[in-house]
């Protein structure tokens, strides 16, 4: 699709000629930005009582639900850009908070804006002490994503004014609070799982360093993370910050479209991200690698996947990328940097062997199944000693920035209304009620 200099789609107005063979009538459906408007189909009717033609698109395979200026993906060419900036350049040089600002505001912050933004986020990192009571109520083996989802939802009860979503100041405050507090909640969850005392935010540290400090600090007065880990976390947060209309973002937009407060909408995004076909995939990759056990077992495992046993090669394939996921390339390089410092292990060898065989196997090549971002992220996070079921929480911290940018864009979009798809009813026709309990 052609794009103008400011990233605005060029209007190539043309039309689709449609002939309804049921009636013989002809219609012209305008095509703009490569799409017809689904509502234009409604004029196509057999008679005045007909509802009009619907488009049927389970899983939204070919439906644009919004116009968005935030993230651009070209799945065939493996391109990902935030507000026009290539992901490779942002991952190389930007900070996560700079990217979070960019996603929301559309432009990079100047020095003053950035300093204020960092100050605001840092200032709001503390959470209400009562949050700790919730967390201690969770069982020791509760999944961290369940805990994160519920505590983020609970935050809305601490900030009742956040429901004033049409007030720009309240919206701004909620966005700052969420970006600031999600890492604190995530770190508290980590400490709860480990049975360790909570570590409060250290406002002299950067966003990423502070998060790692809340996770790992013990008795030392100031925690200093290993530079390679700080860098890896910053880059992974940038890579995960947004990915246009994926499952969790769609959930955030759908819940937000009912004008629920942003804490509730983001909690819905976390719930969607939890699933193994979405953000849970990096966790699933490591479980799969554990199940394979040794590089010599890789060929047999691949054969199992190909035989249609139902087992998928986790970390491979993507709904949108049908060539290499550009994030996977960056993550692979990052994994090399991390493993150069912490050493290679058996699981990395298994991963490399899986990748090598899959990339040369016709089953995967013909289906355009390439490693996605999650194939290597789990290995990096594990080398940092994060528990496997915590990986998706790390993803959620980063994606909070994207969810909120998308949520606000949706609210300010005059065309958006409450999300309410249609259905094709395939159930019974009317039939009389006869109780089967009292024959
Ligand atoms: N391993 C083996 N076969 C696969 C895989 C895989 N990982 N992914 C897709 N296929 C096969 C399917 O069996 C199907 O084959 P068929 O045509 O013979 O029936 C074909 O490829 C197309 O698969 P779909 O399920 O139609 O593809 P879709 O675009 O709906 O799925 C998805 C995308 C869910 C990501 C899928 O590739 C998958 O399950 N991958 C593994 C999970 C994963 O890594 N998810 C992370 C995604 S990235 C993210 O969310 C951050």
% residues in beta strands: 5-15%
Helix/strand class: mainly alpha
Query: Tally the helices: what do you get?
Result: 17
Order of helices and strands, N to C? Answer: EEEEEEHHHHHHHHHHHHHHHHH
Instruction: Provide the low-confidence segments as ranges.
Output: 1-9
Neighbour order of strands in the largest sheet: 1-2-3
Number of strands: 6
Task: Supply Rg.
Answer: 24 Å
Shape assignment: globular
Overall pLDDT, averaged? Answer: 93
Largest sheet: 3 strands, antiparallel
Distance between the termini: 63 Å
Bound molecules: acetyl coenzyme *A
Percentage of residues in helical conformation: 40-55%
Architecture overview:
The chain has 439 residues and is mainly α. 49% of the residues lie in helices and 6% in strands. A 3-stranded antiparallel beta sheet has the order 1-2-3, with no helix packed on it. A hairpin with a 6-residue loop joins strand 1 and strand 2. Helix 6 runs parallel beside helix 7 (207-216). It is globular, with a radius of gyration of 24 Å. The structure holds acetyl coenzyme *A.
Which tags fit this structure?
binds acetyl coenzyme *A; globular; three-stranded antiparallel β-sheet; mainly alpha
Q: Brief overview, please?
A:
With 439 residues, the protein is mainly alpha-helical.
List the helices and strands and how they pair.
Blueprint: E1 14-19, E2 26-32, E3 35-36, E4 71-74, E5 79-82, E6 85-86, H1 87-93, H2 96-105, H3 111-123, H4 130-137, H5 144-158, H6 168-194, H7 207-216, H8 227-240, H9 247-256, H10 262-273, H11 281-292, H12 298-306, H13 326-342, H14 346-360, H15 362-366, H16 374-383, H17 391-412
Antiparallel strand pairs: 1-2, 2-3, 4-5, 5-6
Helix pairs in contact: 1-8, 2-17, 3-6, 4-6, 5-6, 5-10, 6-7, 6-17, 8-13, 8-17, 9-10, 9-17, 10-17, 11-16, 13-16
Bound molecules: acetyl coenzyme *A.
């Amino acid at each position: 699709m052609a794009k103008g200099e400011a990233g605005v789609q060029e209007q190539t107005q043309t039309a689709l000629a449609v002939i309804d063979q049921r009636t013989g009538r002809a219609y012209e459906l305008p095509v703009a930005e490569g799409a017809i408007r689904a509502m234009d189909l409604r004029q196509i009717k057999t008679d005045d009582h007909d509802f009009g033609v619907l488009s049927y698109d389970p899983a939204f395979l070919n439906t644009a639900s919004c116009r968005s200026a935030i993230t651009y993906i070209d799945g065939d060419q493996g391109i990902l850009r935030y507000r026009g900036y290539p992901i490779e350049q942002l991952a190389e040089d930007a900070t996560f908070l700079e990217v979070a600002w960019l996603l929301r505001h559309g432009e990079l912050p100047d020095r003053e804006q950035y300093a204020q933004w960092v100050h605001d986020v840092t200032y709001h990192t503390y959470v209400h002490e009562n949050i700790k009571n919730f967390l201690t109520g969770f069982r020791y083996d509760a999944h961290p994503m369940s805990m994160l989802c519920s505590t983020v939802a609970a935050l809305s009860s601490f900030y009742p004014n956040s429901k004033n979503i049409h007030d720009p100041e309240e919206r701004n405050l909620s966005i700052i609070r969420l970006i600031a507090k999600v890492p604190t909640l995530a770190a508290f969850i980590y400490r709860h799982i480990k049975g360790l005392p909570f570590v409060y935010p250290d406002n002299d540290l950067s966003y990423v360093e502070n998060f790692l400090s809340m996770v790992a600090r013990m008795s030392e007065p100031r925690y200093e993370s290993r530079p390679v880990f700080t860098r890896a976390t910053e880059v992974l947060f940038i890579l995960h910050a947004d990915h246009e209309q994926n499952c969790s973002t769609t959930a955030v937009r759908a819940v937000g479209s009912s004008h629920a407060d942003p804490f509730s909408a983001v909690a819905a995004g976390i719930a969607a991200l939890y699933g193994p076909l979405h953000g849970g995939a990096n966790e699933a990759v490591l479980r799969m690698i554990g199940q394979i056990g040794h590089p010599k077992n890789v060929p047999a495992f691949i054969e199992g996947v190909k035989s249609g046993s139902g087992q998928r090669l986790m970390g491979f394939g993507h709904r949108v990328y049908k060539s290499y996921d550009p994030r996977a390339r960056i993550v692979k390089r990052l994994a090399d940097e991390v493993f150069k410092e912490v050493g290679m292990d058996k699981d990395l060898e298994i991963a490399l062997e899986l990748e090598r065989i899959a990339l040369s196997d016709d089953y995967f090549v013909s289906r355009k199944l390439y490693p996605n971002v999650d194939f290597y992220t789990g290995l990096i996070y594990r080398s940092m000693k994060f528990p496997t079921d915590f990986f998706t929480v790390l993803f959620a911290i980063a994606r909070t920035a994207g969810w909120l940018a998308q949520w606000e864009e949706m609210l300010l979009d005059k065309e958006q209304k409450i999300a309410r798809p249609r259905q094709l009813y395939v159930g019974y026709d009317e039939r009389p009620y006869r109780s089967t309990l009292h024959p």
